Amino acid sequence: MLAVRDPAAGPDLIERLSHDPHVWTRQAATCDARLPLPRLVEALAVPELACSAGANPALPPREMAVVMDEAGVPA
């Protein structure tokens, strides 16, 4: 989990950590802005990662709008 805090960690490492067996590590990786977009979007559909993925600052507005629509939040 500490590897996610390393500023030198690249997107490949962050993506690998987003598949870690430990949920806390997956969640830490999923909310990291270096996580590649395809994995970030995939994580939105994983119950234990959805909250972390939704809080990721790299989440594009169009994906955020989809999440909000699915949750029934009015525009």
Explain how this protein is built.
With 75 residues, the chain is mainly α. 55% of the residues lie in helices and 0% in strands. It has 5 helices and no strands. It has helices at residues 11-17, 23-30, 37-43, 47-54, 61-71. The longest helix is centred in the C-terminal third of the chain and has 11 residues, at 61-71. It is elongated, with a radius of gyration of 12 Å. The mean pLDDT is 93.
The helix content, as a percent range, equals 40-55%
Number of strands: 0
N-to-C span: 36 Å
Mean pLDDT figure: 93
Summarize, please.
The protein is mainly alpha-helical. It has helices at residues 11-17, 23-30, 37-43, 47-54, 61-71.
Write the layout of secondary structure elements.
Layout: H1 11-17, H2 23-30, H3 37-43, H4 47-54, H5 61-71
Which descriptors would you attach to this protein?
mainly alpha; 75 residues; single chain; 0% strand; 5 helices
